[in-house]
Fold:
Amino acid sequence: MSKLAGKTAIVTGASRGIGAEIARSFAAEGANVVVNYSGSKEKAEAVAEEIRKSGGEAIVVKADVADADQVKAMIDETVKTFGAVDVLVNNAGITRDNLMMRMKDDEWDDVININLKGVFVCTKAVTRQMMKQRSGRIVNIASIVGVMGNAGQANYVAAKAGVIGLTKTTARELASRGITANAIAPGFIMTDMTDRLSDDIQQTMLGQIPLGRFGKPEEVAKAALFLASDEASYMTGQTLHLDGGMVM
Amino acid sequence: MSTVLERVTKVIVDRLGVEENEVKPEASFTGDLGADSLDVVELVMELEDEFDMEISDEDAESMSTVGDAVAYIEKNQNS
Ligand SMILES: NC(=O)c1ccc[n+]([C@@H]2O[C@H](COP(=O)([O-])OP(=O)(O)OC[C@H]3O[C@@H](n4cnc5c(N)ncnc54)[C@H](OP(=O)(O)O)[C@@H]3O)[C@@H](O)[C@H]2O)c1
Structure:
C-alpha cells in the first residue's frame, strides 16, 4: 500500500539535498509533489522530471519561503493543480556560519529570515487550506544543533531552536482541526550543506556520533514519510532526533 | 438572491453547528454561539470566501455579534 496515495505534498527547498530526497520518496509513495526552489531551477526541474519518469506527479514552483506573496502564489497554484494541500514539509534552509564575535547583522538576518521566518510564512499560508480540509500534516526540518547548540552557528542554532518552538505552538493551535505538526532534528547529513565543511571539522564531528558515520538524505526522508503518513496519526508537537545518537 | 443575513446565517450554522434560530443579530460568536478564537478566525475566512471580500484583522476584531458581521458586509460589499 502506498503511504501517501492521493495526497498532495509541498516540499520547500526540494531542488537539492534532503528536500529533493523527500520529494522523490513522497512521490514514490503516491503523493502529488510540489518541488519548491528559490535559485536552482534546473535541479528542481530534474527532480520533478525524475518523479514523472517513475510514474509520479510533480510540479515545480519557484518561491522564496520568506516572501509571503510568493508563498501564497505557490499555495494557490498547488490547490489549482491538485485540489488540496495535505502535507507541508518546511525543509528550505541555509547556513552562514561565523563565530558570534565576527557575525555580521546580515548573516544573522538572512538565516533567521529563511530558516525561521520562512517556516512561519509557509505554515501560516497553508493553514487556511488545511483548516478548511479539517486535516493536514506539517513536518519541519529543524536540526540537532537547535537542541544542543553549536559554536560558529549562533544564527542557525537560534533559527532551528525557534523552529522547534514554533512546531509545538503550531501543534497546539491546530490540533483541534485535525492538523499535526512535528519536527525532525537531523544531525550531520551528507549534502551540499555539509560538503562545504573542512575535513578537520568533519572528523571532529564524526567523533561525536555514536553510530560512527554521517547520515544520508534517504534516512531523513524515511522519517519525514512516517510523520506525513497515517502511521503518525497520534503524534504532534514532537521533535525526532535523527543524529546517529549525538544527543540522547 | 438570499439576503446577507441569510447567507451569513448559513455560514455560521455550517461552521459552528448551531441551530438556525440561535443565529440572531444580537447573538455573540463567542458568548452565545460557543465559538472559540480559532472558530472566529475560520468564520471570518469563510465570510471572505462567501462574499468575495477581504476583511482586515482590525475589522474582524470589531465584529463580535452576528449583527456586526452583517452590517460590516452590507457596508463593504463591492457590488
Ligand atoms: N545537511 C545537514 O547535515 C543538515 C542537518 C540538520 C538540518 N539540516 C536542514 O535540512 C534542510 C535541508 O538541508 P540540505 O542539507 O538538504 O541543504 P542544501 O543541500 O543546501 O539544500 C537547501 C535547499 O533549500 C533551498 N532554499 C534555500 N533558500 C531558499 C529560499 N529562500 N526559498 C526556497 N528554497 C530555498 C535550496 O534551493 P535553491 O538551491 O533553489 O536555492 C535547496 O533546495 C535545511 O533546513 C537544513 O538546515 C541539514
In short: Chain A has one domain: 8-240. The mean pLDDT of chain A is 97. The pocket of NAP is lined by residues A 12-19, 36-40, 64-66, 91-94, 114, 141, 143, 186, 188-189, 191-194 (CB under 6 Å).
